[in-house]
Protein 1
Amino acid sequence: MDWRALLAAADGPPGLAALRKAAGARFLERGLPSPRNEGWRYTDTRFFAKQEFELRRPAIEIDAPVGVRVRPLGEAVDAAQPFLADEAEQGHPFRLLNSALLRDGLLVEVADGVTVEEPLHLTITTDRGIALPRLLVEVGENARLTLVERYRAGEGASLPVTQLAVGAGSRVEHLRVHHGRDDVHIGYVEVRQQRDSLVTSHTLTFGGRLVRNDLAFHLIGSGAEARLNGLYLADGEQHVDNHTTVEHAVPHCDSHETYRGILGGKASAVFNGRVHVHPDAQRTDAQQSNQNLLLTDDAIIHTKPELEIYADDVKCTHGATVGQLDREALFYLRSRGLAHDEARRMLVDSFAAEIVRRISDERLRDELTQAVVARLPGMLAEAA
Amino acid sequence: MLEIRGLEAGVKGKNILNGIDLMVNAGEVHAIMGPNGSGKSTLAQVIAGREQFEVSAGSVTYDGRDLLELAPEERACAGIFLAFQYPIEIPGVSNTYFLRSALNSQRRARGEQELDAFEFLDFIQDRMALLNLHEELLNRPVNEGFSGGEKKRNEIFQMAVLEPKLAVLDETDSGLDIDALRVVASGINSLRRDDNATIVVTHYQRLLNYVVPDFVHILVDGCIVRSGDRQLALDLEEQGYDRIAAKAA
């Protein structure tokens, strides 16, 4: 992949040219992450060097409910500036690349005090080539929004970045769903939460050749609460990497993180959950759990909590488990008459349901429950 | 109904059952008593088909079929039920969904019509009352957050719904206070019929005050050392396992 040529040919809204140029220079200087970089130890992106991807525009399908304003980025450059001020200095290589090629994206705004009743649905499709959509979401004070990002990819690579700014007292539910098989998906989500806001995120990955989800939560207003839920299903030779960071910058903030993975075939996955409690962030309550179900002997999970705590009056817990289907539970179900396959499916299904049931919207919950149910038989058959 | 001959079984080459002979006919209640580690629970689980235990000798015939050839779910569909000593918690699966799936699986195997959610709720109403179970427990995940007594009542409730021909109750009385014991025992008694049989596995005699057995067998070191009627359980309570076992030897 010739990045220099790609970046030289990049165009987009003139108002973003300076950012593209600065971010591009920094990206070229730093290059792609090396496996020697701890954050990329298990997720090798060096295939980008060997493979050519044509730059494509992603297809973005928008189903916007009443109460939310959605504009193409090109028509909202001025309004987008507060989101983009520091983008050329970011350390994450793919976030930088997204800025260096910034062209396709949306600015989503919800005004103060507005409750958006229906979810905002965004479906982003990349059939082939490489696409780098950017979503900027500004939720005012005391507002409510449910945002659904669905990614579908054929054999291409999507490198989306979403930035979510949540005003004081607002509640946002954010779903990021990736349906893939042979594609590459490297996504970055940044959430900045003001006082007394609540953001619940659900990151659901149903497979992909290489999937990496980075989530960075910044709790910058006292009383803010973040709930990070994640579910990843992978089989064959798929690879899914979830890296999360929660920055507790101020006192009295809560974060609750629950990630679960089901891995079959020779799939591999990474969970890295960093919680950073700054010196001022007294009375922080941070909980983290990562549980993994391995359906085969060849599936691999690398799970790592990273707690950095610089305040003394805090409650921080973390735990990780890796296991196989509980034989006692299987026997219990079978002893009641359930066939072996049905018993396995019920147990795996219930393991996944613990995450999916946290989605508030009933229709979305049903849709994703069905997506899990549809995905499991193949994984179980392969593992049998 | 059930005929066990010379049954030897264990784990990893170490025998726990050392030649069990037992005959159970329809309409009978058998109590199997024994000290800790005598093999009572192993016998119960071998009958239910727990694969962890390897059968190294002997035979088990159930309704004329070789029981040992059947998978646990096939045994369940043929009418065998094991009430677990430690019922398993299954987070994320509601009690009703689990039990309806199990019942329908058995009904399918018998060529009967499956019950939909509404028919099932009708079907279980009086059985819930029998075990004094609250509706709220039914909607909770299987056994999760249940008290010890609730778990045991839930086991007998499952038995009431699945209507087995041969029920094996493994230490169903352990951990129950006297009120819960009465509820569970009356549930068991009301399910007794001429065409079904029950094996009660227990360490103590007290459950047998409520569920009166036709036969009592004493299991020591994986062998039935004595068999008798109800009086044997009372003697055992008075004299202890050591003396009864010594007498047998």
Protein 2
Amino acid sequence: MRGVPALTGLQRTERAERELFQELAIPSVSALPEHAADVRRNAEWLAALMDGMDMRTELVSNSGGPHPVVLGEWLGAGPSAPTVTIYGHYDVQPPDPLEEWLSPPFEPSVRDGVVYARGAADSKGQHLPWLQAARDAIAGGGSRVNLRFLIEGEEESGGKSLATLLHERPHGLRTDYVVIADAVFSPNGLPTLVTGLRGLLYAEIDAQGAAVDLHSGLFGGVAPNPFHTLVHLLASMKDREGRITIAGFHDAVEPPSPEELASWERLGDSDREVERVMGAPLEGDPDHPPLHRRWALPALDIHGLPGGFTGSGSKTVIPAHAAAKLSFRLVPNQHPDVVAEQLRAHIQAHGTPGVRLEIRRLGGAVPVRLGTDHPGVPALRAAFQEGFGAEPVLAREGFTIPVTHDFIEALGAHMLVTGFVPWDAAPHSPNEHLPLDFYRRGIATAAAFLRALG
Amino acid sequence: MLDRALQAARDQRETSQADLFELIRIPSVSALSEHAADCRHAAEWIAARLQAAGMKVELADVAGDGRRHPVIAAEWMEAGPDAPTLAIYGHYDVQPADPLDEWVSPPFEPSVRDGFVYARGSDDNKGQVMCAIRAAELALANGQLPVNLRFLIEGEEEVGGPSLPQFVKTNAQRLRTDYLFIADGQFTAPGLPNLLTGLRGLLYTEVAAVGASADLHSGIYGGVAPNPLNTLAHVISALKGRDGRVTVPGFYDGVVPPQERELEDWRRLPVTEEEQKQALGVTALEGEAEFSPLERRWARPTLDVHGILGGFQGEGQKTVIPARARAKISMRLVPDQDPDRIFDTFAEYVDSLSTPGVRITATRLSSGRAVRTGTDHPGVEAASRAFEAAYGARPVLVREGGSIPVTVDFQEALHPHLLVTGFGLPGDALHSPNEKYSLDQYFRGIEMVLHLMENLRHAPRA
């Protein structure tokens, strides 16, 4: 930016929005191999943006996965100044079901001040405010904190490139604070500082019955049907009311702290709001309040039951094989390895004689608990006060940010998990969106945080 | 007629084989709209054959809405009003070929290996209906037929379509039929043909489950969101116990147990449980343990899920709570269960099994009653002697677990004596990858139909 006349505030806002739309237009779907080139293009786009901010940039590829980590750093504040690392991810979820999008998922469309596109909330609209704030800090006479960005391309597909990088270069990446820009506001509109994240165990149970698909007329009544075995198994894992019934599953679950419970009082009753956004009544374990079920208790969901015939019309096939894709959301102090063993034992005890069941682990993440007794917390409180006019509540997130655990392990830095996205922004769903007002205020909040730390 | 026609059948086996292959190459998949033109092509091909043989042929577009497949109705009535009329039923449509990657040779390119032709439709039903088509051609080319002959061939058997039932009902007056011959099955064992005394019916449904208004992230909503797949797992697991017992209220009302004579026959059949396990490639058969495996396949109703649509079916992980899901569920019915009553109860029952946040709706895709055929009409002896002449063995009386829904419509509209049998062999992999059909069975099947025509010469009218 040096040698270029300074931009007005309006011009900066326009540029920030233009850059948001540019990144949203890249279909960086990491889970689908046909989008590999797009994922790469997104990484290169980010690196070019950081280059333009006078950062040292690097696309890091390693054995951890197929997609590079974008590393950008500006260490001009000197070795005695604190270093802030911003984490984000540039990959996005697959956009299907496509027919439910009102505008194409990779053509950002602004309606009533809200931009609609896959990745708007999760999470291109999360790291870009920090990049905008960093540019302004560096260009405006130099930031008083050292800055590092680590933006990965495998968050949605469970890759390990960033984790590998963190464990390979813990000294080169030494940092005082890590900001994980991936959380959402509370349903009643308050910013959040996250004190705990649920973990994950994602598994596929393969069920093999006969050697080939069979005609249900000829063999119905004697042929093992892997679907029936699977539904009996699945029904035995969670009862109709939502209680998970696997032996030992709840043993390690730790209740929320008194400080968290007190902060959650500020949230009010969000149940009706959750129902409104879902468009359906709440379900789940009646022994615990819904907020606890979303944040502090484990969950089990079936994501798909592939196999057999799902086309239009009728085909009377007894499939030779079927599968169940399912995941457990885990809470402190559960561990995916332990739950995987419990699941294995449960499956062994709940099969049927003619069907072979095998479990494949597709992903896992350890649940994490985050402390609030470091200087980053008051700085963030003040920054949100400036950007959004509200202090963050101590919240938890129900989802996984697997890399949080790796940051803690490898770098031991103070963690700040927060974000600039409203809670009902439809991440992973059709018509994912982000109000542009949140984006602008996010930029202001990020800028205030960097000033407050320096 | 008979001797000359039989001789011609033996002399022209290469032609018969080439004809069958031509028909197999037409991918007439009735369930998939992109194959509609292929279905018509198959119908026109058969119609042209029967016309060339000297029959009066009608290609009827019954529904006339362009989404249905034509019925072929052909007749040759020159044996006169006192001679019996033999009608032959078959279907030219086939099942979808998927999963394609499991086929050793392409499904619509007939490949001969060890005396079998491998292709979709080779057994079910092109290879069997072609036995009768070839027999009619050879008989008409070699003298006066002893019976009146009629073909009623449809293209919607695999989808439970309405065209043939509607055609038969509307035209019942002019479709005079005394004996109805249906070859759409398999021998009990190599060298052991059968005649059917009963067929199971089918009630095919789709159960839709709707939860949230859009797909949800399981991290954010897991623990509070209704999940239609979780609910369907509970619903389906409640529909049929691990013991194979269907729990739909009143489901077993009206079930008529097989006659002791049938059960005796079945106990004598050379089919062991071990062989059935091997045929299926499983370590254990499942189902109602208090009934023998054959009884479970032939005389007991059951319920199976065929597929569950919804959520993420691809490779890898996607943490979605789907907004909606759908399960394809069918029930095999036995005499004298009532599909209408069972569907109504089923729809109410699945709804009652739902969870608070999920709405469940059952839709009927098709249904057909189970059939009991008589075992003592004159056609049974005529067919038994025809099998003996062509294959060297008289048929055993068995039942069939599959449905030929149109038998119900034939029975109600035309009241014929039913002769339900088949020329396939066990292990022909119907509806599965690598479906196959024995060419020897095919050639002998042509001769069997020729003998049947001759044996019905003096048979009384129905």
